[in-house]
Automatic annotation (TrEMBL):
Gene3D superfamilies: 3.30.40.220. This is HNH endonuclease.
Length: 197
């Protein structure tokens, strides 16, 4: 059973990641929706009601995968988008707490109530097998200090974020391979193949 301090730290890290990603998605979508590609009219009340369309989500994913700032996706230059978002963040730093207060994320109580999984939700690697691999230093990650030392939390449907009922506890490999592009159902054949390795 994880120590309560570890659970609190994991929840705070998850909430921070969730908010940063959702705010970036929100600002990207506002940029797309603006006829002048202007973020100056963005307000916390708009964030509170924000829901991207499937097309906006697809654009967001493509923009995150751009190889350079010179890349354009749907005639939108990624460098221009990036500069607009960075400028907005600088100009609105004092308001970020207000935006964060409106962010929908799993509650601390619901997070703490997540069951300790016996196995990865996708490939069925058990906790014991995962621990054996970890102790044998078989987990290869560029972020070992922050990832790969325990099971992770994944969003079954990426667009819904870290919300109650949308979470799966999974191994590092499945979480890494699933990315934000697949739903749980779409990813399952890949997880089945990973289980064979």
């Amino acid at each position: 059973m994880p120590h309560p301090t570890d659970i609190t730290h994991r929840y705070q890290a998850l909430r921070k990641r969730s908010f940063e990603r959702h705010l970036d998605l929100f600002l990207t979508t506002c940029f797309l929706r603006s006829p002048t590609q202007d973020l100056s009219q963005v307000e916390p009340s708009v964030y509170q009601a924000f829901l991207p369309t499937p097309q906006e989500w697809a654009f967001y994913v493509q923009s995150q995968q751009a190889k350079s700032y010179a890349t354009s996706v749907n005639n939108i230059n990624i460098g221009t988008l990036d500069k607009a978002i960075k400028a907005w963040l600088v100009d609105n730093t004092p308001q970020l707490k207000e935006y964060e207060a409106h962010h929908q994320c799993i509650s601390p109580a619901a997070f703490n109530a997540l069951p300790e999984p016996a196995a990865c939700a996708y490939c069925k690697l058990t906790q014991a097998q995962f621990e054996t691999l970890r102790q044998a230093e078989q987990i290869q990650t560029k972020r070992l200090r922050t990832r790969g030392t325990s099971f992770e939390i994944d969003c079954k449907i990426p667009e819904l974020g870290y919300t109650e009922g949308n979470l799966a506890v999974c191994c590092y490999w499945c979480n890494n391979a699933k990315t934000d592009e697949f739903t749980a159902a779409e990813f399952q054949p890949v997880a089945d193949a990973l289980a064979l390795v």
